[in-house]
Design brief:
The chain is an all-alpha fold. The protein is elongated. It contains three helices and no strands. Helices cover 49% and strands 0% of the residues. Helix 2 runs antiparallel to helix 3.
Length: 83
């Protein structure tokens, strides 16, 4: 049977007619949020440098931009995993 939706927030207003389990007040396990990293920012900074190369018609700027992006992605991918 398909439930009838009468409002956008049925659990907040108590308008649920079908037997639904209430939402838990606390999560079942602690939620792990990884720490911050500078490598996504470094990777993102390499993209404008890479985009600057066709505007200035210089090949060495393209190589610098590619190097920044590749180093950022490599270091971001092999960052130590924290538990």
């Amino acid at each position: 049977m398909i439930p009838t939706v009468e409002s956008r927030l049925p659990l907040w207003r108590g308008e649920h007619h079908a037997p639904m389990a209430p939402l838990p007040t606390t999560p079942p396990q602690p939620i792990h949020v990884p720490g911050g990293s500078w490598w996504p920012f470094v990777t993102a900074c390499g993209l404008p440098v890479l985009a600057l190369a066709p505007l200035t018609h210089t090949l060495w700027i393209a190589f610098v931009g590619v190097a920044i992006v590749l180093v950022g992605i490599y270091r971001w991918a092999f960052e130590p995993f924290e538990v």
